[in-house]
TrEMBL record:
Protein name according to UniProt: MATH domain-containing protein
InterPro entries to which the protein is assigned, alphabetical: TRAF-like (IPR008974)
Organism expressing this protein natively: Patella caerulea (Rayed Mediterranean limpet)
Domain of life per record: Eukaryota
Length: 329
């Protein structure tokens, strides 16, 4: 049987020696282990890449869900802010209407008092006219002389100025332009914060201890290259699962402390609305500082009840979203 050969330069095999002058020719059987080892190594690298991409795909899916939740939350905050502004505007409107009522009562009171004075004057003048007419019909000169000053005084009192119609204030509302820019400013300004989302899976056996079991590091490359990890433990005092977020310290080089907003979500696989969520704004994180842990606590029995939807094959997932607010010196 002819020896099988392999040309390393051309990557070709032949049963007879090929005419490959100056090429590296070797026995095909002799390189079997070499090629097999290389293939095993490369295949493992590919499998590692597949695992990384799967992990990235899961994080991207969590990020998509996080964006949806954040958008819904922000929309609800807009609705609440608009409702608050509407309440304040309504209060202002009620205040203006109360002022209108107050001014109306004041003006009506002034007109009423003037009318009462006018009616009294009418009665007095009518009485003077009646007496004067009776005296005119009488032949007594003395009576004429007695009434004449009274009539003169009454006539002087009834000048055109006295009888002029009163001037009253009729309230009208002068409208101004609605300043949309001011309304937008009152509602708030939209701000896009860069955030990083990652998914961590834990086995129930990893959280049985009262000390924290931490995940691998997650490098938030787009967030100033900080490294984070998620920890879980059994809080025996509260009989709960405690999920924490921690900023890792990296080697001898000091890692900057930071203020960050975060969301920790213990995923309910059956219904998103039943997932446990812990959120906080502007929390101070110091690298390697256990006292800066931010925890989500979940009832232990509720977690381990398989009907509740948190466990799958004795594993549960935590979705973490981090947005850096400020890097500290």
């Amino acid at each position: 049987m002819a020896t099988r050969l392999y040309c390393r330069d051309c990557c070709e095999t032949n049963r007879v020696p090929p005419d490959h002058k100056d090429h590296k020719i070797c026995n095909l059987d002799a390189i079997d282990q070499e090629v097999r080892t290389e293939l095993i190594t490369l295949t493992q690298k590919l499998q590692d890449a597949v695992d990384r991409f799967k992990k990235m795909s899961k994080s991207l899916n969590a990020c998509r869900c996080s964006l949806t939740v954040a958008s819904q939350t922000t929309s609800e905050e807009v609705d609440k802010r608009v409702a608050t502004i509407c309440r304040e505007v309504k209060k202002l409107g009620e205040s203006m209407k109360n002022e209108i009522i107050k001014m109306r009562e004041q003006h009506i009171q002034e007109v009423t008092e003037t009318k009462m004075d006018t009616d009294s004057e009418i009665q007095l003048l009518e009485s003077t006219v009646r007496i004067s007419n009776d005296i005119i019909k009488d032949n007594s000169t003395l009576s004429l002389l007695d009434i004449l000053p009274v009539v003169r005084e009454s006539v002087d009192r009834c000048s055109d100025e006295f009888c002029s119609l009163p001037v009253s204030d009729h309230l009208v509302l002068r409208f101004g332009d609605i300043d949309l820019d001011s309304l937008k400013e009152a509602i708030g300004e939209l701000e896009a914060k860069k955030s990083s989302t990652f998914v961590t899976s834990f086995h129930v056996n990893e959280c049985m201890s009262d000390t924290f079991y931490y995940s691998n590091d997650y490098n938030s490359t787009g967030l100033d290259n900080l490294h984070w990890c998620v920890g879980v433990r059994h809080n025996e005092l509260m009989f709960s699962l405690c999920v924490s977020l921690k900023l890792k310290k990296r080697g001898e080089k000091d890692t900057q402390a930071c203020r960050a907003s975060y969301t920790l979500t213990l995923v309910n696989r059956l219904e998103d609305a039943k997932s446990f969520v812990k959120e906080a704004e502007g929390v101070l994180f110091r690298p390697g500082d256990d006292y800066s842990l931010c925890c989500l606590n979940v009832d232990w029995n509720q977690l381990f009840d398989s009907t509740n939807g948190f466990l799958l094959n004795d594993k549960f997932e935590v979705v973490t979203t981090i947005a850096i607010n400020e890097l500290m010196e």
